[in-house]
Amino acid sequence: MHAVSERSLRATLTELEPDAVRAAAGGVIVVRSPGRVNLIGEHTDYNDGFVLPAAIDLEIRICFVPTDDRRVELTRLDSHERQGFDLEAIGSPREEWIDYVAGVAQALAEGGIRMRGLRGVIASDLPIASGLSSSAALELGAAWALTAERPPPLDAMQLALVGQRAENRYIGVRSGLMDQFAVAFGEPCAALLLDCRSRQHEVVPLPLELARLVVCDSGAPRDLATSAYNERREQCELAVAQLQAAGESVSSLRDVDLDMLERHGPRLDPVARSRAQHVVAENERVLATVAALRQRDLPAVGRLFAESHASLRDLYEVSSAELDALVEIAQATPGVIGARMTGAGFGGCTVNLVAPDAVERFREAIARDYPHRSGREAKVYAVTPAAGVGLVAP
Ligand code: GLA
After folding, report:
1. Relative to the CA of 42, which ligand 1 atom is closest?
2. 255 belongs to the catalytic site
3. Rounded to the nearest whole angstrom, what is the distance from the C-alpha of residue 222 to the centroid of ligand 1?
4. Sheet containing 200-205, strands listed edge to edge, beginning at the edge strand earlier in sequence
5. pTM value?
6. Looking at the DSSP assignment, which residues form a beta bridge with residue 64?
7. Each residue's pLDDT tens digit, 110-125
């Protein structure tokens, strides 16, 4: 539906890199790497909890040829901006989009994985830096491109972990595994229930004939996202440390329940306690959502979405006036089954389950009401769960 034209990618690569294309014995390779939307289970992944994301049909594409030198050079199809680095001297982050590729190269090098240089063109219909995991999409697409083997010499979980390592060590965001996992394992028409402790997952088919997946991008900048994200993670770690100090044998918030939080309430830092309350209840909501989806009980899913949003707003404090406005508009629109902020928060997107015949009405409601509530325009995307990262057939 949204796919970037493969023909223009190939034509641009041939135009920009004629020598490399001519020399490439195996021909031009195109990798597609999807974004993700999380249905529920927010800020639970780095607490060993449960998440329920889906890869979506908005994606990044990398069209490339492997080279025999050690240079990695990528050009953006839209702006023709070219960025690159040397595999023998990856260097530190430059605060540019190429950092996600360089971070993956670093992580692969640390894992002793063989890489080749490349010349490529990159394009995206996935909105960048909007909370739909454009960074994880670029990381996993880059891992496929840098190893230049089909498929890469790593399984999907190892690939996801390489992407997470790039994000944690090179980019400096202490994120969990959800985004890279979703990009690696995506399934058409389904969400994925991941247990972040065991790293086992289950495919959860979605009743798409009853509920479309609609994403609204608030258009708000996410400036403080990294520092505020890392701070939330520290607050969760503080809650665990204080419970341990109080004699509980817990190693993460996964081991905690609401009774335990209640019992130790006065001994816990109040902010850390609120964060922990969110995480503990959110884990339960993920499992309840999966059960409700399996029973096709969409009103129950809608209630769980509403509770999740309220908890992220009030206990975890990662929503924003814009995200709250989008959710409130959604909740007041007939045919919207559920609405909540999705991803890290601090700006970014909401995820909505919408009856198929109400999608247009929902678009109109957002276009009418959001600008005067927020002073911004929202972008609305009806998305479909898609397969994870892989090659586009030649
Ligand atoms: C970001 C991170 C994920 C996860 C979410 C919040 O997307 O990359 O690991 O923590 O925020 O659920």
Report:
1. 12
2. no
3. 13
4. 50-51, 190-195, 200-205
5. 0.97
6. 29, 120
7. 999 999 999 999 999 9
